[in-house]
Backbone:
């Protein structure tokens, strides 16, 4: 993800109270952000959802997905699309990029699109994430996992934060609803102790100005995780663009804004 750069969600990523409801095409109700995630077992064509309301109904259904295409206007992940962000962090200026590849991967019975995210400081790669996303027929975008590589002094330093839905108790989450509503809260991912991001929709009518341009009717969310209880981020998504701004609201001073968008 942009911000703490937990691959998800960039765009980075957002999910919602709807796992099972999303697969059925119905609009979900609200859930409590602090609810405990499920740890259901995995079948050949199903995987535990990261969202408790869906988990109560059983599973994430791979039959609710079709081709490996993502058309949600708030997360327009078309192959070849690329976003560049300028960030201010506690460690200094940072550049982050999000690039939608032409590659796909089978995850939990679903053909997922792979998105590559990078973070660099002073020309040195700090982190690289290969994240898997898929859109169901109702238009909801799901987050199915990420391969994380952290670097130090130009060398691979670790892979902490990696997870994949259906493995080691990890569950799929939703990163963008087909029709977000104020008050919707959701689990974006769930690998206990590794990745447990959650979010809530705060507004659908924000105005935002960043280097790339000005936007209206922007979605604003707050994002948090029990793994960092003192941390809170706000994210802003513009229609037909995606994530345009992310800033720390508590527990940090980071700010990332969209500088360039191309391709797709």
Residues:
């Amino acid at each position: 993800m942009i911000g703490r750069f937990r691959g998800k969600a960039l765009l980075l990523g957002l999910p919602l109270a709807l796992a099972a409801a999303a697969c059925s095409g119905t609009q979900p109700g609200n859930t409590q952000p602090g609810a405990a995630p499920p740890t259901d077992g995995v079948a050949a064509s199903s995987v535990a959802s990261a969202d408790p309301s869906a988990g109560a109904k059983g599973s994430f259904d791979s039959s609710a997905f079709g081709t490996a295409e993502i058309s949600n206007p708030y997360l327009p992940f078309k192959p070849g699309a690329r976003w560049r962000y300028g960030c201010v962090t506690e460690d200094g200026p940072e550049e982050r990029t999000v690039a939608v590849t032409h590659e796909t991967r089978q995850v939990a019975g679903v053909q997922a699109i792979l998105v590559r995210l990078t973070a660099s400081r002073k020309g040195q790669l700090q982190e690289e994430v290969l994240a898997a996303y898929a859109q169901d027929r109702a238009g909801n975008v799901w987050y199915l996992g990420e391969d994380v590589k952290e670097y130090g002094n130009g060398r691979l330093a670790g892979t902490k934060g990696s997870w994949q839905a259906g493995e080691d108790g990890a569950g799929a989450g939703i990163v963008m609803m087909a029709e977000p509503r104020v008050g919707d809260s959701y689990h974006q991912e769930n690998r206990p102790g590794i990745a447990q991001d959650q979010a809530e929709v705060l507004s659908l009518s924000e105005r935002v100005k960043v280097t790339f341009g000005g936007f209206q009717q922007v979605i604003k969310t707050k994002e948090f995780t029990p793994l960092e209880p003192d941390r809170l981020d706000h994210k802003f998504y513009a229609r037909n663009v995606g994530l345009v701004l992310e800033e720390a609201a508590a527990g940090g001073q980071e700010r990332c804004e969209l500088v360039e968008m191309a391709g797709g």
